[in-house]
Write a structure and sequence with these properties.
The protein is an alpha/beta fold and 216 residues long. It is 22% helix and 42% strand. Strands 1, 2, 4, 5, 7, 9, 11, 12, 14, 15 and 17 form an eleven-stranded parallel beta sheet that branches. The protein is globular, with a radius of gyration of 25 Å.
Length: 216
């Protein structure tokens, strides 16, 4: 049988032990939170490039050609184009790369509302949502464009890589989509569509054309 004094000593030891356990749990929680990945801030050069590119998209008008130079360009916001008659051109699908790995505003990589639109010779990587979405346009050409999620197939990847929808007179050629969580190349609710010489891999579905009239 413990004496009163001994019981008090036992309680103090117990309190200290519980305190150490509580501290250990708190440290583990803090460490776990600290281990969570968060988007990295753009470098000064990438931030300046993004601002300039967004201005080109905002100021675009019929006949505009937006050049994407060779290199890997980190962006953290969706690029939205709302103009007709615009061409976006890079130096090659493995040379001019727009990386959305640290995207904080999107979810698409590039979102286009316009007709007589051409995009060619560039890559879009690691967008939070769809890679390239073209909505409600006519005379759409997508050539030598690579959309890829570089971390491999994951359910958290964007649903569609190359995604024209509600469009007319669409050509998708010599392009690639890799790692989409739904379809690599998806054409929906469109008319007069040609999809040729493309590559789709590591997507849930490769190439899907749905609710579309006159598709080849």
């Amino acid at each position: 049988m413990l004496e009163r004094g001994k019981l008090g000593d036992f309680q103090k030891i117990g309190d200290k032990t519980m305190g150490k356990v509580a501290i250990a749990i708190l440290c583990a929680v803090i460490a776990g939170c600290g281990g969570a990945t968060s988007p990295q801030a753009l470098s000064a050069d990438d931030a300046a490039f993004q601002q300039q590119l967004q201005e080109h998209f905002l100021d675009a008008k019929p006949g505009s050609v937006i050049e994407i130079p060779a290199g890997r360009h980190a962006l953290d916001r969706v690029l939205t184009l709302r103009a007709n008659g615009v061409t976006i051109r890079g130096a090659g699908a493995d040379k001019s790369i727009l990386s959305f790995k640290n995207e904080i505003s999107g979810p698409e990589g590039m979102l286009v509302y316009g007709s007589d639109f051409t995009i060619e010779h560039l890559a879009i990587e690691d967008s939070k949502g769809d890679g390239l979405k073209v909505n409600d346009g006519e005379n759409i050409t997508i050539r030598d464009v690579r959309v890829e999620w570089t971390g491999g197939p994951k359910t958290t990847n964007g649903a569609y890589g190359i995604y024209p929808v509600k469009a007319k007179n669409v050509l998708i050629e010599d392009s690639a989509s890799i790692g989409a969580s739904d379809a690599g190349i998806y054409v929906g609710q469109s008319q007069n569509v040609i999809v040729r010489r493309n590559r789709a891999e590591k997507n849930v579905a490769g190439i899907e054309i749905e609710n579309t009239i006159n598709a080849d």
